């Protein structure tokens, strides 16, 4: 009967007929990211990374006896939990997606997880939601992330700043789950290591004028201003205000602030500034850049993590022999970690073949993937500096 159904589906495909959602030879994966909002300059490269993995798998013809994989995009907005929840619900109820690659920002990711993914039993793998609060969120084994928690980023920030001789900083953060979680993690780590945070102040996104916030930060002083915000929103406004007022000469940028838009907005005005975002110099990173081939920015923050998130979803499906989240959620950790043959970008066909034959894979991917605890990424970071208006890599941590 199964062979008859597959033959009928193949005939329908050759005839050019459309299949109903969730049927025939198509698996839909939701890609829910902030295509509008405070990180909209980053998300096209993230979506492209995930969709590159989907194309690689589809072209192989190896997933679950020849299933094709289709991306269905939806806008999380990054900041509007209600809009993100509604978008995720549409992906599941109307589009028939089998898993979610996303979301991106921590607040909307938590909202989708608690209000949609749990209720519908759908696996989510986020490439960029970094709030430490998500580590303890109720998830029924459905939530994973390929970017490390900001508990780790806070430690890395501390190391970078102290190694550069920065003993005191003013700190501002976007007033949401991401900003507050990162600010708290950093302040705890920095002060424990002997640094001084002169002020820790929230800022709201979407304002036209940040002079009041900049004034408070300038009054508190510090060797550098840490801006835990968004490059396409209030974080950029804070930096512009601080530069124009002569309040700070250099800045430190966590992941939400780093991208080519930072170069475009400020250029050499922020030379000497520092920062970090998830990244690795592992062999997989070079393989990912080669695979992308200039089609989009392979080194854009969270683009490699997006490729890896989508790849893990599809490999887990193959390991389980099923596209149902209830079946493959338990396989995500298995395919992500040793033992097994190491798998890099461009190797997905090989991985699918190994899994089909009953073998094991250790997905290394573009970001040296290792999942620990409840689907947490162990995490690696790319440390950057600004020189002549350009982002330069200092080293990897």
Describe the structure.
The protein has about 400 residues and is of the alpha/beta class. The protein folds into 2 domains: about 1-10 and about 25-150 and about 280-375, 3-Layer(aba) Sandwich (Rossmann fold), CATH 3.40.50; about 150-280 and about 380-395, Rossmann fold, CATH 3.40.50.2300. The chain is about 40% helix and about 20% strand. The chain contains 14 helices and 16 strands. The strands form 4 sheets. It has a 7-stranded mixed β-sheet, sandwiched between helices. The protein has a 5-stranded parallel β-sheet with strand order 2-1-3-4-5, with helices on both faces. A hairpin with a 3-residue loop joins strand 13 and strand 14. Helix 2 (about 45-60) packs parallel to helix 11 and helix 5 crosses helix 6 (about 175-190). The longest helix has 18 residues, at about 45-60. It is globular. Residues about 1-25 have low confidence and may be disordered.
Tags for this entry?
5-stranded parallel beta sheet, 14 helices, Rossmann fold, 16 strands, alpha/beta, 397 residues, 2 domains, disordered N terminus, 7-stranded mixed beta sheet
What's the arrangement of secondary structure elements?
Elements: H1 2-14, E1 26-33, H2 43-60, E2 68-75, H3 81-93, E3 99-102, H4 106-120, E4 123-126, E5 143-145, H5 150-163, E6 168-174, H6 177-192, E7 196-203, H7 211-220, E8 224-228, H8 234-245, E9 251-253, H9 260-266, E10 274-278, H10 283-292, H11 303-320, H12 325-328, H13 332-336, E11 341-343, H14 348-356, E12 361-363, E13 371-372, E14 376-377, E15 381-387, E16 390-396
Parallel strand pairs: 1-2, 1-3, 3-4, 4-5, 6-7, 6-8, 8-9, 9-10, 11-12
Antiparallel strand pairs: 10-15, 13-14, 15-16
Helix pairs in contact: 2-11, 3-4, 5-6, 7-8, 11-14
